[in-house]
Queue: 4 jobs
Job 1
Amino acid sequence: MAENKKPYWLVTDTVGYASGASTITVGEIPAKTLVIGSELVVSTLWAGTSPTLDLGDEDTAANFVVNTEVTATTAGSYMGTTNAFEGAWYPAAKRISITIGGTSLTAGVAFGVLQCLDLSEYV
């Protein structure tokens, strides 16, 4: 029988400019989860030479939000659209990552937000 299922929001850890250009694990998507939405939030604008940010998982660095969709030098919330995001099924747990690009970074803080459905009781 069909059933209404309420999504929940998974908010990742933050990343900051002091990490430099790198990929940082910021959380985990639980097994048997359907990710139905994603955003990357720039809470403190990034300063330096060509700062970029991607939100993804351990397999694809920009699976959710691609750096061309983010203006890292402007605080705000950025949804992924380039990948025509239609959802991602995770039968097994996966790490969430934010990839920072750029050089001589002197400021910046960001985090990710994923809208998820726990489908463990169905599969």
Note: The radius of gyration is 15 Å.
Job 2
Amino acid sequence: MEKHAVRHPTGPAKLKQLRRTLIRGVFFVELNMSVILICYYGVMKISITDLRKKVLATFADKGFNEADASRIADVLLWADMSGVTPMGIAKMVGSEPVQNEKATAPVEIVRDTKLSRLINAHHAPAPLICQQAVDVVIQKAKDHSFGLVGVNNTFCSSAALAYYVDRIAQEDLIGIALTRSAGSVAPFGSADPLFGTNPIAFAFPTNEEPILFDMATSPMTWTGLILAKSRGEKIPEGMAIDGEGNPTTDPAEAIKGAMFPFDHGYKGSGLGMVVEIMAGPLAASAYCDYKTYDKDYGNLFMAIDPELLVDVKDFKAQCSDMTQVIKASRKQKGVDEIRLPGERARAAYKEAQKTGMVEVDEIVLKELGYL
């Protein structure tokens, strides 16, 4: 791994006063509105094949069978290959390592109809049960044009929701996924972390690759906070408050306090609440867990057949045309390319497939014993 440092004439004492930010492994400082690269920090390229073997070995050591370990690895490596590193093997470290989650009882179907299913995971790893939930929701939508599957009683992150909705859209269905987790985000005007990071994702089939949109309703992921703390980094100003409600750039204090919604306003807060409801009470899961932090996470998946309203071929063609119209629209000054949601991640994934290499955080690799 290459590391580069830049000396500044004001010296180390002055640098300590500068605001520092880490963006995808590149360490920057801001000085009089200009940005100076300090070092390339903490990102390594590793063979995808080798990384997968190491991940599978870790799960095998924890007692997982090969099939279940492989399905979990699919989710995590997809995220790393797509450049969404906080959703990748970073989920194997920190406060809720996915490989440490073990089912306390067989996965239970609590309620089942031709359109829906409610699954009690009984502590099984969320990425594994969410894979199974997507299998079910796709089949129900293929059989009856619509599917709705809720998952409760998981206690770790489901990882990248885009992975699951992409699977749904690859079947010519519209995919929607929502997840709630332990409290880390304060609603608008509140100082208590009532909501989780609460991501929501959509996928739409086209004549090319599906359109993907995946966003957290928080400004960064919980794993991102954990990694920032591990690296001794600061987080951007205006992102979080400490346990006393004071603004902070210290991720350790933000963990004790709360992040704001992604837009710092009532719209982001409202969207976070919608996710909290749909992946909480609607999935028979917890909600507003910020005092004991021992409640379960909830997930909700939907699959919709466009044929309910229109011919699927027409729908896909029009979605493809829409992307072309957006891409061909006039660019603002200083903009080189108009990007669609998920486009950068898709390009990163294809590049990883082509080269057989993937970028992973060095700290994560060290913590997992892969170095």
Note: The chain has a mean pLDDT of 88.
Job 3
Amino acid sequence: MAAICEDNRIDVPHVLNQDQIRGWIDDGYLIIPDMLSSAELDELKQDLVAITRGKYPSENFKPLPNDISAGDAIANILAIHHPHLISPVIVKYAKHPKIVGALSQIVGSHLPWWDGSVKCMQTMLFVKPPGFQGQAWHQDELYIQTRDRSLTGVWIAMDDANEENGCLRVIPGSHKVGYLYPQRNHDDPNEFDGNEMSYGFDESSAISVVVKAGSVVFFQGYLLHCSQKNRSDRFRRTLVIHTMNAWSILPWSNPDLPVPSTGDRRAIIPLSGIDPYAWKGIVEHHRTPYLRRCSANTKALPPQASMEDKK
């Protein structure tokens, strides 16, 4: 029956105060230090290696030879898209109680009658080894569209992130007007990966988001952000989770969906509150995890190398 489903409500703790929520609404991003413990970070780092070694069955991640070290297994990878499709560890962190608790307070905080319901549709593991490129200025809602401007990224710092190894840069408040800036080629493959660059705005107020490992950065889907090349001698590993208001349908690109006004991708993970469209069911994602490449991929990639894609 096509009726709002209020069964199986997921209750989560509230972890933010009103000043943090107001800062999120005004700035479009929020930093919470020490949200993950060192043991949790170690679990994520170990799972990253397990994925690249082919621990989980996947057509794009085949088992690697035993003589390849953990460092070598990840040394030529910029990012892995959709690791949650094969890894229960990534799903565990998408559902992390503290993270989801914060999401239940901010994702739809600009909507007066929002009830805290949130769903997840994408994850990405960024490895960003030394010498690997960042991503030019962009807004995530260009790639993952919501109906209510509720797209919210979760950026979990697995390593200390600073300007040297290519931390996030943001333009505070750039989400407010709800304008999606046009894009063009950036013509700087030494600095950025192959994704296009947004343009037409003033960058003078941009700031670097310098954080310690275990910090979590939340950022709004219309917020202009970028990251630059890793110029250090260490990794800049990050787990990125994309979420949105569960009451919004998800007209994200998929050849099997109808027109965008009614299309609703149901390859999701309910995180908090209710899933109003549960009557539609939850379907398998139409893709498998794959690698994003950049110009630093000069060595032969491991057997699991696949296509690159935008978010």
Note: Residues 18-292 form a domain with the Jelly Rolls fold (CATH 2.60.120.620).
Job 4
Amino acid sequence: MQRLFSLSLLILSLSGAIALAQEKLDPKKLLGKWEPVDSKISNLTLEFLDKGRWTLTVEIMGKIEKAEGTYKLDGNKLEVTISFAGQEQKEMLTVKKLTDTEFVTTDSKGKDEAFRRKK
């Protein structure tokens, strides 16, 4: 009986953890301009626009470079595609945190990136 009770508690706690991990994020919170919290590249801005479009803008040696792409947020998965210099790249990111001021992702290689809303 004790084993059955313990097993039931384990199943319930796992169900709660899975539900929390699959929690829907508010896509409206993603919209706007974001800058990296810790980056060796200064003057980098990500801007998420409506209708699944986004841009990356960076200033390198006084010259502003811009790349555009598309995104799709599904649960906590953020699929981004970007085109730059005739090349298209895709990446699947896991959104770990998305608030009005913070945006944290993990890429497919396990690297975390933190952003703050740009003022």
Note: The first strand starts at residue 32 and ends at 36.
